[in-house]
Design brief:
Elements: H1 2-81, H2 90-94, E1 97-101, E2 104-108, E3 117-118, H3 124-128, H4 135-142, H5 163-169, E4 173-174, H6 188-193, H7 198-212
Parallel strand pairs: 3-4
Antiparallel strand pairs: 1-2
């Protein structure tokens, strides 16, 4: 009988150990499954977040595009209806106007292309008097093989004209005018590039301010 009792105890101990091993294995497998699920869910959440950000970005871009088009159309309509004076002054044109469209809004103003220096027709001397342009750069633009330029950004193809230089002159140059500058709407740097003396430029500025209040 004692031998039988010891045998039963051994079997019981063996079964307990096997059950423990099985339970431990199940726990390990469960942990690995949880780790894999966490990784997959994290990746999925990140993918969904990126797609949501992309959709929002696309929506903002489309909204901005249509607001810009609305601003252009509004400007065209306004110019066609304008019969207030024989000419438009510098400050009148550049006065910012704002319109609300749905949940968005746009700001627009007018710029006279005749108030800028035409880089296709300007002389070396005129070009050299623009901000950040010296005689060498002006000559490079004047003699460029890329002329005639069809957009002002094309002068970035000219040797020596870097982005920093372009950023300083982009508001004062054009390719759309006939070459004659309208001094009524020309900004100060353009007036100086035309060779006007400092005191004359100041008088023009004072006249403009008085005219526009």
């Amino acid at each position: 009988m004692p031998i039988k009792r010891r045998s039963e105890q051994g079997v019981y101990s063996f079964l307990v150990k096997e059950r423990f091993k099985q339970t431990a294995s199940i726990l390990v497998i469960t942990c690995w499954i949880l780790v894999i699920l966490i990784i997959l869910s994290t990746g999925l959440a990140r993918t969904v977040a990126l797609e949501i950000d992309w959709a929002r970005s696309l929506n903002r871009r489309l909204k901005a595009e249509y607001l810009a088009k609305a601003g252009i159309e509004q400007g065209i309509v306004e110019r066609k209806k304008d019969s207030s004076s024989e000419y438009d002054s510098f400050y009148e044109l550049r006065r910012k106007r704002q319109k609300v469209l749905g949940r968005g809004k746009y700001t627009y103003f007018f710029v006279d292309e005749e108030s800028k220096i035409n880089i296709n027709t300007a002389s070396v001397n005129t070009l050299s008097l623009l901000p950040e342009l010296d005689t060498e750069l002006a000559r490079n633009i004047y003699n460029s093989a890329f002329k005639p330029f069809f957009s002002k950004e094309e002068i970035l193809l000219v040797e020596g004209v870097e982005k920093e230089v372009f950023s300083q002159i982009k508001d004062f140059i054009t390719v759309y005018s006939e070459g004659k500058v309208n001094i009524n709407t020309a900004p100060v740097p353009v007036l100086k590039a035309l060779g006007l003396e400092e005191d004359l430029v100041e008088k023009i500025e004072e006249f403009r301010k008085g005219e526009d209040g």
